[in-house]
Amino acid sequence: MKSLIIFYSLTGNCRKIAKELNKKYPSDIIELKLKRGFKKPKMNFINMLIGGFQAITKKTPDIKNLDINLNNYDQIILGTPVWASTMSPAIRTFLKKHNIENKKIIIFSSYKNEIGKTFSDIKEILNKNNEILDTIEYKN
Ligand SMILES: Cc1cc2nc3c(=O)[nH]c(=O)nc-3n(C[C@H](O)[C@H](O)[C@H](O)COP(=O)(O)O)c2cc1C
């Protein structure tokens, strides 16, 4: 079975988790990058304001092109930080751009205070013929 870990990380937590999960589920790994990224990879006021606004308003900012064919994978491990109680905008863009069907899915998410609607919002988008095997949460 071929597995892909695909994640977004601003401040590095999901990147570390992705590396850990790769030990348990040997996978190809892809980190999503925004075309117009944040100046500093920090949880500072300006990033909270802009990122939080984008997440709340379900914006789908452009992400850098990915050289992948999802048809090659049976399992997708999807990772995102919680932003404003939901998924990060980069992950929303990815889910909107790629029609994910007939996959086994594991979702992981890291957060500071509360997981919020992150898993349920992602599951709602992935509701077509996918099997959600697990959801894994990591509190900072
Ligand atoms: C724009 C922004 C919004 C955030 N909103 C939340 C939130 O609503 N709830 C929460 O528990 N943590 C929130 N956080 C904290 C992150 O979810 C947490 O630090 C996470 O581990 C970061 O993952 P990363 O290092 O992979 O980017 C927010 C962080 C940022 C930058």
Give a quick summary of the entry:
With 140 residues, the protein is of the alpha/beta class. It has helices at residues 13-24, 45-56, 89-97, 118-125; strands spanning 3-7, 28-31, 75-81, 104-111, 131-139.
Low-confidence parts:
none
Top CATH class? Alpha Beta
Largest sheet: 5 strands, parallel
Number of domains: 1
SS-derived structural category: alpha/beta
Order of helices and strands: EHEHEHEHE
CATH architectural category: 3-Layer(aba) Sandwich
Question: What is the 3D form?
Answer: globular
Strand order within the widest beta sheet = 2-1-3-4-5
CATH topology-level fold name: Rossmann fold
Looking at CATH, the homologous superfamily is: Flavodoxin domain
Overall pLDDT score: 97
Catalogue the ligands.
flavin mononucleotide
Total number of strands: 5
Kindly report how far apart the N and C termini lie. Answer: 31 Å
Gyration radius, to the nearest Å?
14 Å
List the helices and strands and how they pair.
Blueprint: E1 3-7, H1 13-24, E2 28-31, H2 45-56, E3 75-81, H3 89-97, E4 104-111, H4 118-125, E5 131-139
The structure holds flavin mononucleotide.
Descriptive terms for the model:
140 residues; alpha/beta; Rossmann fold; five-stranded parallel sheet; 4 helices; 5 strands; binds flavin mononucleotide
